[in-house]
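Team,

Forwarding the record for the chain on the shared tracking sheet. I've put the sequence and predicted structure together so nobody has to dig through attachments.
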Amino acid sequence: MSARTGATPGDRTEGRIVFDQVTKTFPRQGKRDEPTSALRGVSLDVAPGTIFGVIGYSGAGKSTLIRMVNGIERPTAGHVVVDGVDVGALRGSALRTAQKRTGMIFQQFNLLETVRVRDNVAMPLRLDGVGARTARARAEEVLDFVGLGAKAGSFAGELSGGQKQRVGIARALVRNPRILLSDEATSALDPTTTAQIIDLLRSINTEYGTTILVVTHEMDVIKDLAHEVAVMADGEIVEQGTVLDTFLHPRSPVTRDFVTTVVPQGLPDRVVEHLGGDGLWRLLLVDDEVTQPLLSGLITEIGVSVNMLHADMTEIQDHTVGQMIIKVTGPEERVAAARAYLEQRVVHVEEVAR
């Protein structure tokens, strides 16, 4: 896959996506039905060359949002601006030209099962009027990039789910798009294959500076892939920020629910009731903090007893994030000193809720 002329990650200005107070209302289906508001005043600014994640439960509006980038859906109000062009205002050939600069990866692959892999990938170019030989050569080039060069002559129906998704990615890349849209692209895949697809998307972004907009309901995908994230609920953005900050400091209940699928936030109620809430704390640690001898320091320097109930670590955007849940016991003044000791050494200390 060849890089676009001048399109390096460090100097790109193309590929920016801006949602400016976008509302989308679908008309009522029957006389008694009310109009459905899929999006309510959504504003986002996706920087060129970044991977931006949008996460939400089913019905949050995230799929409607992503389909507006390539003009499949149009805003009822507001503007969707891609590369400085208001996509919602485009019609006919102008819209089709803009759509060619945006590739899309679907959840269900959308391949022709009885057509050879190279021809599935070449199809967008053939629809553009590119000759068969040139289109197939370009398809084979992109298939090599996604690791399926040896499968170019196979039929799509002979491939595994992960291989089919790689073909879908190759087809999305065949026009050398500025922007890649991923609509729940990993939700039908097993965890190992999901990790491979995430690695491939990261490679596309790193090597070619392609802007990638990902919508998903899987927080693991956000953790491993995106640079920034917006959390959606009921057609609105309820939280937005860097992925690391969102994991460390989730503010909305919806965000906390998603974060707990990756980093559990508490203990079973039975354990909390047995131990009592006093001195029962959850610690969040980042990078070098995870290697500190915190517990031995509490015991030898502060003079309290410590019971470690839970600990884990994960990697988030090249940062190590750890957590511990501990029970600290001792005289009241020493427990208070232990809390102060920890607050000076870790990013966050909080009581475990009863």
